[in-house]
Amino acid sequence: MSCTYGSGYDTVTSSLWFSPKQSDSWRDESIPEDLTTDPGYAGRVEYAGEKERGRSSLRITDLREEDSAEYKFIFNTQTSRWGNSFPGTTLTVSDLQVKVTLATEAGKRTLTCSTTCTLTDNPTYIWYKNGHKVKEDTSSLYSDYFSDADSYSCSVKGHEDLQSPAVCQNCWSVTYTHQSICALKESTVNISCSYTYPSYHEIKKAFWFTNWSGMDHEDLSSVPGYQGHIEYLGDKKSDCTLRITDLRLSDSTGYRFRFITSGGKFAGSPVSLTVTDVVLEMDPTSVSERENVTLTCRTKCTLDPITVYSWYKNGQPIPNSNTSSPVYILFSVSSEDTGRYSCAVEGHEDLPSAEETLTVTCQYIGGLDIQFDIVIMLILELRIYCFPCEYISINILVCNIHFPEFVLPQCHHYFK
């Protein structure tokens, strides 16, 4: 929603958008409050505009039916307030519905993609048959010979993710929210699912299965190994969601929902579930000081949504190491980087990868004579310390040994 305004030679000191509908929540019903401070609009309201040109616009995201209201813009100058008495912009939030009517030609029907208000900008309508796009037109009407076994829905171009509920006369369907799912080993996954059938039928049985013996489908809840491992969250109306707990790598397979009614039976296509563990790859695993080491947190499939990765050393989180990338680089390592490394994904920090051990060896330090070069390496409390050594003469080696906690005096090694 946009508006233009002007204050003449008076300076604009502040401005805001508000809705009179929200006045009950204001501290003073006569003093409008900024929409951005209203809890019902938290995180969904944005302002844009050019104050010097007298332009302002209001953007509301994730619209809800309760957002239907009048919206007004006001601005304050050094001497007065303007805009409260002017009419605002009325917003009506609508969803889409498909209505079926008989056409004049025998056997033909007309589908109407309807809304509770007239959409602006002359929208283009998209029609779907059994979930697949079949037609795109500026008209909200779709006339054809429709099969009672098919389902139809519509959307507005640019908002294809907001389809109307599907309608059908005698349709049979099983619809999954995701056709393929990636999940972590030992976690829990819900396979969301809905189904339709003729309204005059009664559900007799509903179940999930993975294998078909050729004679009948075996209910997964009665298969050894799945008892107590799966839970049917659906009902005998339209919801067929399946929950699988404590996932195992062996649970990776295709899952199908099947239901039997008083007048028929139907099975959906498979949902592919891939169960993965988290694997840390370290390259290389043994390095000299000041070299780089690359850690890669791998899974067999792509987790959704995009994952944040956590990195650990000796079982403790590495400070400020969380990344959206599965790759973490240890730059110019020192002996203090020696240790056991692992990784995990956000939300499943209790399911880290197996540990990989990094070994950092002392960098070779040259002396005066190549055949007598020596590096001193001490191991103290499982930490490796490297110290440079310098030849004073052909048979005297001097090493400076420094610890974080204390300093040892110079030590002299004499060759016999």
CATH architecture of the largest domain: Sandwich
Q: So what's the overall shape?
A: flat
Structural classification: mainly beta
Distance between the termini: 91 Å
User: What is the CA-atom radius of gyration, in angstroms?
Assistant: 34 Å
Q: How many beta strands in the DSSP annotation?
A: 36
| CATH fold label of the largest domain | Immunoglobulin-like
Largest sheet: 5 strands, mixed
**Can you identify the CATH superfamily of the largest domain?**
Immunoglobulins
The domain count comes to 5
The number of distinct helices, counting runs of at least 4 residues, comes to: 0
CATH class value of the largest domain: Mainly Beta
pLDDT < 50 stretches = 364-385, 401-416
Please indicate the percent range of residues in DSSP E strands (runs of 2 or more).
Answer: 35-45%
Q: What does the average pLDDT come to?
A: 80
Helix % is under 10%
Description:
The chain is 0% helix and 42% strand. The protein is built from no helices and 36 strands. Residues 364-385 and 401-416 have low confidence and may be disordered. The protein has strands at 2-4, 12-18, 45-50, 55-60, 69-77, 81-82, 89-91, 97-102, 109-114, 125-129, 132-137, 141-144, 152-156, 173-176, 180-184, 189-191, 193-196, 203-209, 230-232, 242-244, 253-261, 265-267, 271-276, 279-283, 286-288, 293-298, 309-313, 316-317, 327-330, 339-345, 356-361, 376-380, 383-387, 389-393, 396-399, 411-414. The radius of gyration is 34 Å and the shape is flat. The protein is mostly beta strands and 416 residues long. It comes from Hucho hucho.
